Every structure is written in C-alpha cells, then in structure tokens.
Amino acid sequence: VALSGAAHADPHPDAELIIEGELQLTTRAEAPAHLDGALPEIYSGWLFRTDETRSLQMDDFDNPAMLAVEDGADMWETAEGAAEQSCADCHGDASESMKGVRAVMPKVNENGDLWSMEDYVNNCRTERMEADAWGWNSQDMRNMTSFISLQSRGMPVDVAIDGDAAPFWERGKEMYYTRFGQLELSCANCHEDSWGMMIRADHLSQGQINGFPTYRLKNAGMVSVHNRFRGCIRDTRAESFAIGSQEFRELELYVASRGNGLSVEGVSVRQ
Amino acid sequence: AGASASAEIKPADVVWEDEIAIPMSLTGVPGDPARGAEVLSKRSLGNCVACHQNSAMPDVAFQGNVGPTFDGVGARWSEAELRGLVANAKRAFPGSMMPVFYNDSPADYIRPGDAYTAKAYNPETFSTLLTAQQIEDVVAYLVTLTEY
Ligand code: HEC
Ligand code: HEC
Ligand code: HEC
To answer: How do the domains of chain B map onto residue ranges?
Structure first.
C-alpha cells in the first residue's frame, strides 16, 4: 500500500507509565512469536492517549477507576446469598488470593469451557454463595472485576493459547481478521494495519486489552472488554455479538494473547 | 430518491469500464459540488474525512489519514474513475479499507447491521451508504480538487 508514509509513527515515543512514582508498568514489549511479525512491537493503548489522560492514570487519587475498585473491595467483604458468605470468607485477602488471576484470563476451566473473569465470579456467586448472578456488564460486576484486576497490576499478561485453549484461540483469531458489517472492517484493519493513524478524531491504538476494565472519560464509567468489542463491531455497521457470548470470550482470548508481555494495568483511563 | 428514482442506475446495473471506472452518471442529474462537499465532511453522510485529509476544507475539524489526501485527487483521476472509486473502491484497490458506498445487497456482507444500532439489518430499509445523487454530488466536488 502506497500510503504508509506517515503511518505507525506515533505512539508516544518515550512516555513511561509509573504509578504513584513507584510502580513502573510495561507499556512497550516485544511482539509475541505467535503474531508472526504482524506488529513490530506491542504497545499499550495508554501510549496513544493525550498527556492529560495519561497522567490521570499515574496517580491513584486522580484515577477515576479507583472508585470502582473501592466499591469492588467493599463487595468483596459483603456476604450475599443463601449461603451467607462473602468472597473474603473463602478467598481471604485478595491481594494474595487474586494476585495473577487477571493476567491469565480468559482461561479454560476444569470442564473444558473457556471462561472469562466474569464467568468465574458468577460461578462463585451462584454455586457457592447461592446468590443471583450479576449481569455481565452490570456495575457490580465491573466494580468486582476492577478490584480483582488491580491485584495483578504490573504483572505481565500471560494467557495460555496452546493445549485446551488452542481451538478457542483459533476461532478468536479468525474473528479478529473477519471484515464485519456494511463497512467491511476487521479488528485488524483498524488496530493492526492502521494503528498510529487518525480516523476522524480518534487516534488508533493497537486495541490491546491489558488495561481493562478501563475508565472511559467519554462514558464517565467503567467499560468491560466485551462492551468495548461490541462498540467496535457496531461501528462497522454490523450486527454485533452479545456481551458475554462465546464468540466474545474467544475474541477476548485472542486479543489478550496479542498483548502477552504488556503489564496488566489493573484499571486504566482512556478517552 | 424521489422523482428521479426511476432514472437511477441501480447498484447491480452499473456498467463498469476497465473494471474500475463508471463513465455514465448514476442519475442523469448533474452533481452539485456544494452538496458534495457536505457529504464528504459530515459524519452522518459520507464522512470521507474520517479517513482522508482535504486542505481545501481547513475549517473541517479532525481529518483522518487512513487513506491518501484528497489534495490533487481531481488531477490524478478522471470523473469516470472518481465515480468508480466512490461507488466501489475495492475494484481499483482490492482489499481496500475504503467502504463500498454503492451496494444495496446485504448478502455481500458479513453480519450486516441496521446502521449503527448493533442490531441485525432490516431487509426493508437496508440501502447503499450513499444515494446515487450523493455520489454524483461528491464526484462533482472531487473533480474540483486539482491543486496539490
Ligand atoms: C473502524 C475502526 C475500528 C474497528 C474496525 C475496530 N476498532 Fe477497536 N477501536 C477503534 C477506535 C477509534 C478506538 C479508540 C482509540 C483506540 O484506543 O484505538 C478503539 C479502541 C479499542 C480498544 C480499547 C483499547 C484501549 O487501550 O483502551 C480495544 C480493546 C479495541 N478497540 C478492540 C477492537 C476489536 C477486538 C475489534 C474487532 C472486533 C475492533 N477493535 C475493531 C476503532 C476500531
Ligand atoms: C464458598 C466459597 C467461595 C466463595 C464464597 C467465593 N468463592 Fe471464588 N472460588 C472458590 C473456589 C473453591 C474456587 C476454585 C478454586 C480456586 O481457583 O481458588 C474459586 C474461584 C474463583 C475465581 C477464579 C480464580 C482462578 O484463579 O481461577 C475467582 C475470580 C473467584 N473465585 C472470585 C470470587 C468472588 C469475586 C467471590 C464473591 C463475589 C467469590 N469468588 C466467592 C470459592 C469461593
Ligand atoms: C475507512 C476509511 C475510508 C473511508 C471512510 C473513505 N475512504 Fe477513500 N480511501 C481509503 C483508502 C485506504 C484509500 C487508498 C486505496 C487503497 O490503497 O486501499 C482510499 C482511496 C480513495 C480515493 C483514491 C485516492 C487517490 O488519490 O488515489 C478516492 C477518490 C477516495 N478514496 C474517495 C473517498 C470518498 C469520496 C469517501 C467518502 C464518500 C471515502 N473515500 C471514504 C479509505 C477510506
């Protein structure tokens, strides 16, 4: 293509994501081998945002996502359901029991199903607490996944793509390259072929999910991975898939794997 | 649509030249460059500037750069070629990111939706992204962009 001149020039060249002046997160990493050279290097979406948005994420007091984390922390201690148990009753201190969990999600469970974090949380709610399941995109669920994700902040994304996970990963990969909708655009068209470019007012990132759940300034609230996918597919004038669908779990696994090596940001801020 | 609808060439009936150009007007009604400029820049219409930069419209905010600049596009391409490019750029550029603006067949798409609702398309209302006359208007504007 003859138009690659200005392309790929501009994730921020040297900004460093350091939380509270202490914890340095990895926002640039070597592309995983399974990408077969599709990206020269992988970048967190953080590098594509404005100075103001980037700085919000460097200070937990300024980071609006921390409010969701606080609510999640309260919920962690709250007994609900017929079994009258809280998450903490079984899992104790989340900073130990949930450390690393986000970095490997989604993953295949003992029954061979691919589960996202939301599925694990709801399974504990319904099977163990005998409480109602939360809606995938409900505020309670987003608060809880925010709280759990924070426990992995700074750890490298490291989802498994082989063994039991392989068939799910293959289907997710196929989706990533499928040109959906009347605009016939795939995830790859925007986030692999055109990252660094402007599409109207939007500076295209590589569409990584290491930052999720993310506080979107535009929505003034937390956005789940599947909600973001739904929005991007909707914007191709397509019939989207449902949040929490098997298709989106598979796409989540594949997109997560493209970010293997980037830090889990715990909770990020995007425009 | 409206009164001129019967004179319009439907997407399936378009006659192509050299696979990429459309020599005949889609409506027989001359394009209006002012309206074409509006189609080009408005989000709710063609939104071409989402991907193309156009120096002739300095007042239009947030011009994208996924595609080539429009500067000089009227010097690079003939009117017939521009009509073909706007109607279906994938003929000249196979695999292009540029959407096909003149195709009303939902069967050609994967999970076509009902505009930006995320819902399935409605067979009653599914239509081309631009009307035949809007394409004529855009082409009438693009031919004026001869300056680099
Ligand atoms: C028409 C272009 C387009 C397509 C197609 C598209 N996206 Fe996006 N996507 C965007 C834009 C614009 C943004 C907001 C800016 C950014 O972060 O890139 C975005 C943001 C994202 C983000 C948030 C990144 C972050 O750091 O917060 C993810 C994740 C994402 N997209 C995944 C996908 C996936 C998966 C697909 C395919 C199902 C897809 N996108 C298809 C345009 C697109
Ligand atoms: C009655 C005990 C019990 C309660 C209450 C409970 N869990 Fe669990 N949870 C488990 C067990 C057992 C497992 C499976 C073994 C494991 O991975 O620790 C599990 C697994 C998980 C996992 C997957 C961890 C992994 O590494 O695969 C998550 C996430 C989780 N629970 C979150 C929660 C949340 C959030 C709550 C409260 C809303 C909760 N749990 C309540 C017992 C419980
Ligand atoms: C999603 C991105 C996108 C949108 C929207 C878009 N285009 Fe394009 N366009 C492209 C790309 C990319 C090319 C370059 C062809 C290629 O290599 O794929 C192109 C090429 C062209 C060309 C040929 C330019 C040249 O000088 O070679 C014309 C003319 C054109 N587009 C007109 C339009 C018009 C008019 C609209 C709106 C009605 C539009 N485009 C909307 C992406 C887009």
So the answer is: 2-142
B105 touches chain A (CB under 8 A): no
The CA distance from A57 to A13, in Å, is 18
A161-210 confidence digits (pLDDT tens):
999 999 999 999 999 999 999 999 999 999 999 999 999 999 999 999 99
pLDDT tens-place string over residues A107-146: 999 999 999 999 999 999 999 999 999 999 999 999 999 9
Q: Which chain B residues in 40-79 lie under 8 Å from chain A, judged by CB atoms?
A: 43, 47, 49-51, 61-68
Verify that A183 and A234 share a domain, yes or no.
yes
How much is the ipTM here? 0.95
Query: Which of B111, B117, B122 to substitute to test the interface with A, most A CBs within 10 Å?
Result: B111
CATH number of B2-142: 1.10.760.10
Shortest alpha-carbon distance between residue B125 and chain A (Å): 13
Ligand nearest to the CA of B97: 3
Q: Give me the long-range contacts of B89-96 (CB less than 8 A, separation at least 24).
A: B91/B16, B91/B19, B91/B20, B92/B19, B92/B20
